[in-house]
Amino acid sequence: MSLTFGLSPWILIGLGLLAAAGAVWLYRGTVPRVEGLGRAVMSGLRFLSLGILIFLLVEPLLTRTVEESDPPVIAVLVDDSQSLAVASADSASAAAAATTLVETLRSGLPDADLRFYAFGARAGAVASLADADSGRFSQGRTDIAVALRTAAADLEDDNLQAVVLLSDGRYNTGQNPLHTADRYPVPIHTVTLGDTTSRRDVQVRRVLTNEIAYRDVALPMEVGIRHDGFGGQRVTVRVQSQGQVLDQETLVLPVQAGETAVQLEVVPDTTGLVRYQVSVSRSRDEFTYRNNVQNVTVRVLESRQRILVVAGAPDPDLTALRMALSEDDAMEMDVFVRSRSGGYFQGPLPDPSDYDLVVLQGYPSTGTSVADLDRIASAARNNVPMLFLLGHTTDLRLMQRLGPVLPVQPRVVRTGRTEGVLTLTAAGSRHPVFALSTDLPSDAWTSLPPLTVTDATWQSAPDATVLATASIRGVPLDDPLVVLRRRSGARSVAVLAYGVWRWNNLPASLELYDPVWPGLASNFVQWLVAPEDDRPVRVRPAQTVFEGGERVQFFGQVYDESAQPVSGATVDIDVRTPDGTVLPFAMRSIGSGRYRADAGALPEGTYSYTVAALQDNEELGRDQGTFSVGALALEFRDTQADAALMRQLALRSGGQTVFPDQVSNIPAALREGGDLTPRLRLEASSIRLWHRSPFLALVLVLLTVEWFLRKRRGLV
């Protein structure tokens, strides 16, 4: 215990001496005169009251330090996914095995603080195995890495000394858990649940096809059929939609266990979301029939979007753009790159008016034909959308010839350049162009490599919107970096920086940000080619095809007749299931006329939805759409436990791996490894004495007694 002061103790001593001198002087020459004991008592009372006040004025702080002992914390991660029930032959035996293991750990580690987590596609702390639906093996996906990261993050401030992982080792979502184990702060001891031997089974292992198809155009499908123990048997692989068989092939399974590819083909005859069911016929004595069927959903369009990409020269940014846009089968790109001779490597530039979108990358460059520029500008004036991407070859003076078709023009041309970080404006943070994956960290833009910006100054068009500016060395600038405009049906976007190839080639430490550039490039194109939408209510699902077990979320916007956002509306969404059942949900306002709803995980099938928005009992508008949910097939693809992965998790983190009948070895392994050591820590508690009322009460008592004695002796 220690006592400290806010001011120097010498000040306290000096003021104390003054208080003592003042108290003595006060009763030295009183009328009537006070002598002897009475004088000493009253002087003492005055000195004590003044001394206490001086003591409090120097802000005394009383600090007490106590040594506390934190027990060792052992995190027990229990697999709650459907694959565990498959690997363990039946869910009842798997649940009993997990419960027995947890009870054994609890009794074998009486000195440890056991913290339980149940995990599948997500992980969360539970009080016991029976909580949070644990032990039912109901989750449709398995993410071991997220379970390990969640436990480490939750228990970062606790005395976490080891993790015990109960699982079959079959993960099908998230990062490879071995990478997490390599850098894990404590040993991971694994208990492999389930059967490690192979089962006699035939399954649809995979279906490879395009996510985008076109009406009346053949859509090929490659189906992988895997078997174990059915060599030489004849099976039928078919694809059907709405109960109608569209194609089928007969296959004789090879003698050796393994996977065989089967080629099927369908010709879509309608547009929209089309769900196809691919199946393999059942064989007698299969381990399970739940993996004999796999559903795929395809968006069928009338035709592809044609995109003309014109580049000033070969450039890594051009490569990054082509890679990002080539991932979308709905786009058909024609790329023309200027050569030093003045023409294009691919031949004469076609008519830009024949395309749905024109992309200028590092173009116009020095020496670009004025006639070509005029043709591009004419197409833009005829409502062909344009995406302008600045490059190191861009000639800013020639760029001025494009005139009013771009949302921004160079005001002062300078050739210098520097590196800057993209910073979203308030408008940019709300715009759908920057609505990327919800899994991205909030610091995505500041964590990405910097872009190269020029020293030129820019003038945005009066009706343009600046979505992003640049920050250079941490200093935000007002110069625009991403600008867009929508005018009379024509849309254009200008990106006034280059070096996005760095975003397309991120190191392993930044792999979380890999979706940024492909998503941003796709959003640019989607916004530019989207038809003009003047609907007052606009609601869409987060994606048109959800995987089995994935939460279905909706995002919407509501506007009034003046196209102003409406934040206080009542927005109800009715989701119609494949069997006709209507599921009602209320959308929640998130500000600026935006709304969100979470329908949770839905069974597989194709769904439709209708939306109605009301304000003061007056309807603002309606919207509708469709989406699809895939099957929970992942958990049934592997019917045996992955003991090798569980062993590697333990070895890489410094733990041990056991099977259920060896779980009694884990407590001894924890003790031998020093994983049951209490952590001693010092807890300091401070008391601000000048905030304590008893001291003030004591001063009042002393002054009251002194006043009483003065009155008794006739002192004024």
Short summary of the structure?
The protein is an alpha/beta fold. It is built from 15 helices and 36 strands.
Note the gap between the termini: 44 Å
- The gross shape turns out to be extended
- How much of the polypeptide forms β-strand, as a percent range? 35-45%
CATH class of the largest domain: Alpha Beta
Write the layout of secondary structure elements.
Blueprint: E1 2-5, H1 9-26, H2 36-57, E2 60-70, E3 73-79, H3 82-87, H4 91-108, E4 113-119, E5 123-126, H5 144-154, E6 160-167, H6 177-182, E7 188-192, E8 201-208, E9 212-214, E10 219-228, E11 234-241, E12 244-252, E13 258-266, E14 272-280, E15 293-301, E16 305-311, H7 316-326, E17 331-337, E18 357-361, H8 370-381, E19 386-389, H9 396-399, E20 408-412, E21 417-424, H10 426-430, H11 444-447, E22 451-454, E23 457-460, E24 464-472, E25 475-487, E26 490-495, H12 516-529, E27 537-541, E28 545-546, E29 551-558, E30 570-576, E31 582-591, E32 594-601, E33 605-615, E34 618-629, H13 643-653, E35 657-658, H14 665-672, E36 679-688, H15 693-712
Parallel strand pairs: 3-4, 3-6, 6-7, 7-35, 9-15, 16-17, 16-18, 18-19, 19-26, 28-34
Antiparallel strand pairs: 1-2, 2-36, 4-5, 8-10, 10-13, 11-12, 11-14, 14-15, 20-23, 21-22, 21-24, 24-25, 25-26, 27-29, 29-32, 30-31, 30-33, 31-32, 33-34
